Amino acid sequence: MTAPEAGVATTGHDDVVLRLTDVVKTFPGVRALDGVQLEVRAGEVHCLLGQNGAGKSTLIKVLSGVHRPDSGTVEWLGGPITFANPQAAMKAGIATIYQELDLVEDLSVAENVFLGHEPRRAGFVRRKYMAARTTEILDRLGHGEIPPRRAVHRLQAAGKQIVSMARALSHEARLLIMDEPSAVLAHDEVENLFRIIRELTAQGIAVVYISHRLEEIRTIGDRVTVLKDGRTTAADLPAAQTPTSELVSRMTGRSIEYVFPPRPDEPADRAELLAVEGLSRAGEFTDVSLSVAPGEIVGIAGLVGSGRSELLETIYGARRADAGTVTVAGRRLAGGDVGAAVRAGMGMAPEERKSQALLLGEPIYRNMTLSTFSQLARLGFTSSRREREAADRVAQSLDLRPGDVGRPVRTLSGGNQQKVVVGRWLLGDTRLLLLDEPTRGVDVGARAELYRVIRRLAADGVGVLLVSSEVPEVLGLADRVLVMREGRVIRTAPATELDEDTVLDLVMAGSLMEGAPV
């Protein structure tokens, strides 16, 4: 079957535009979708929840024409449908904005908006029309200030997302699928995203919103469908009224109290493992001092742009400080020298694990042994067997799933990829671990596992310094919290003495409340 012709069916607000019944999709050895049910209405935000591996990505690809279901029915605008390819889905009015935006950075905004369906006359692209039409669409999204001829790489993350939404609207989309749209946005940018979504739904456009952030689901969502192991475990739940404990239980089979492991008693050893004194880097952060003791987890809270990630990278030696010192176990490190940091026992899991920390096409064991290759070598040579044996021990300790360390790391879920990055440092003599957004793009169940791993490392005497955009994560995991705003540490306190409202008031005070440019 093919997509219904335009105009065959009309819908009003609250009418069902999309219905999935008993949809199944199987890959070799994996039943990714096992009888999924989903119903989406015009003018609503329908939230889709589930752990990594629950089937969300496969479902998105079925809806966007990448995969065809093996059985079951997909109805669009009142009629059964099977999309031959993504272009057919887009032409029918279903547009997908993926977490990793598929924009061509060197092309202009207008060229990206009309990519693949450029308006032509006599064989020539109508560039003036493209620019004018792009401005009209951007005006509709409340961002007419974005120049249509500006190269996309010159835009910030929020601006790029607006361009992706404009591309969807250039196809007259009736359904917009958004996969983790807030993952790279600051707090004020998320509020702007929600404003745009509300305006689109007021026009009758349906939105399928996928996020791991349950607070977002309550703010923007109308109804919720939950997937677990390829099945629909709950459908049509009211987003604002459904208790968090129920959502977590539907996704993981576990109750909410297991998300954060219990905080241990104050350790007796409070000798400084890491001492940072007066660290500064022009335009990023100023006069930062902090310490981390063996077995202590120190969290840094702050908005995107507050200097958190840049601070971690400077401590690790990936950036050179303009002033200040970094000392590990009494040994002062040379600035801008990652090798010196690693030799001192420091490891880092960066925010962008796929681009900065992993070789996606290589097997798990090779990714785990990258930093300890020389230790595994004998007479300058190593073997895959020794690498596999070492990686397998760590994989078992981290409960890596699947546990076959010969698999390409790209086949793992986000949570298990993060375990591989952490596992790399467990193979060495790591005494201090820096974690930048350790659970970004990771579902609730996998987060709980990562939290237990981090707590276990601390219990073994490893010091942990972590950055997270999610205040509840910082407060629930860290022993002590530093709050950063505009490149400065403005508050340091035990986590038990802070609450979410207090931290948000601190990080959002001042000019950051006025919003960031796109």
TrEMBL record:
Gene3D superfamilies: P-loop containing nucleotide triphosphate hydrolases
InterPro entries for the chain: AAA+_ATPase, ABC_carbohydrate_import_ATPase, ABC_transporter-like_ATP-bd, ABC_transporter-like_CS, P-loop_NTPase
GO molecular function terms attached to this record: ATP binding
Protein name according to UniProt: Sugar ABC transporter ATP-binding protein
One Pfam family in the UniProt entry: ABC_tran
Keyword line: ATP-binding, Nucleotide-binding, Repeat, Transport
SUPFAM superfamilies: P-loop containing nucleoside triphosphate hydrolases
Transmembrane regions listed in the UniProt entry: none
Domain ABC transporter residues, every copy: 18-254, 268-511
Species for this entry: Actinoplanes sandaracinus
